[in-house]
Write a structure and sequence with these properties.
The chain is α/β, with parallel strands linked by helices and 257 residues long. Helices cover 33% and strands 26% of the residues. Strand 9 and strand 10 form a beta hairpin.
Length: 257
């Protein structure tokens, strides 16, 4: 099966997203929707990965991160901030706010998360507005996204399953958090997400969050007709990848000496 994973070393967390740098598909993407943006500290990385972006829609329900996102949007006209949680319906829902600066906050309650990350606790539960992604974008007059970043702490299946096929026909790449066990109660697991997207997308790799947490991480799904472009480097990307492999090999030789 085609994959973005590095055959020479294990990949964890955001390293999987970094594998998209210098790929031919990455240069063609123009509109990004970030579902669960938090403070969107990844913006400099996103600009390196997808230099052609002209629209970036940021969805985040928590007030603290929202203030940061609005400051970023005031300096970057590509950014549009939506103070809502993306869900499968328009309305309101309980949102469980966590102690790690809200980074593990979710529409879902903890499953095995409490055992895997005992340092993180739910501090409070609040009501937040929820919107369907397609409805929010249409109301704002924004184009449909061709790339999705989904990080909603277990509710990814809930979000993805609500997307109409007309929207998903436009999407070419999805980078989403996903688990192989119920880290959040009621969250769809990786096989369910794969089955949901199988009509159009191939899974090009799952990367665990960390070596000690193999059941929770991120996956990259690419529209089937775009898989060759997702795997193919530009000339500059090929040179960068070769230089990176040389650095890793040099580091390994020094460690073995």
């Amino acid at each position: 099966m085609p994959t973005l994973l590095d055959p020479d070393r294990p990949i964890h967390d955001i390293e999987l997203l970094k594998q998209l740098r210098g790929r031919q598909l990455s240069l063609q993407l123009r509109t990004l929707a970030v579902i669960g943006a938090h403070r969107f500290d990844e913006l400099p990385l996103i600009d390196r990965l997808f230099p052609g972006l002209t629209h970036i829609a940021l969805f985040e329900p928590l007030e603290g991160p929202l203030a940061v996102l609005r400051e970023r949007a005031a300096r970057d006209t590509r950014l549009k901030v939506f103070p809502v949680a993306v869900s499968d319906r328009d309305g309101e829902a309980e949102f469980h706010v966590t102690s790690n600066d809200g980074e593990s906050s979710s529409l879902l309650r903890f499953g095995s998360h409490g055992e895997l990350f005992p340092q993180v606790q739910v501090q409070r539960t609040i009501l937040v507005p929820t919107r369907r992604l397609d409805a929010a974008l249409a109301e704002a007059g924004l184009p449909l996204p061709d790339v999705l970043l989904v990080d909603v702490q277990g509710a990814e299946f809930q979000v993805l399953s609500a997307l109409p096929r007309a929207l998903l026909q436009q999407v070419r790449l999805i980078y989403t958090e996903v688990s192989t066990e119920s880290v959040y109660a009621g969250g769809g697991l990786l096989p369910q997400v794969e089955e949901l997207l199988a009509w159009r997308f191939d899974n090009l790799g799952f990367a665990p969050l960390a070596p000690g947490v193999p059941m929770h991480g991120n996956a990259v799904f690419v529209a089937r007709e775009d898989v060759p472009l997702a795997l193919a480097y530009t000339t500059a990307g090929r040179l960068r990848a070769a230089w990176h492999r040389w650095r890793l090999a040099r580091r390994a030789r020094r460690a073995a000496a």
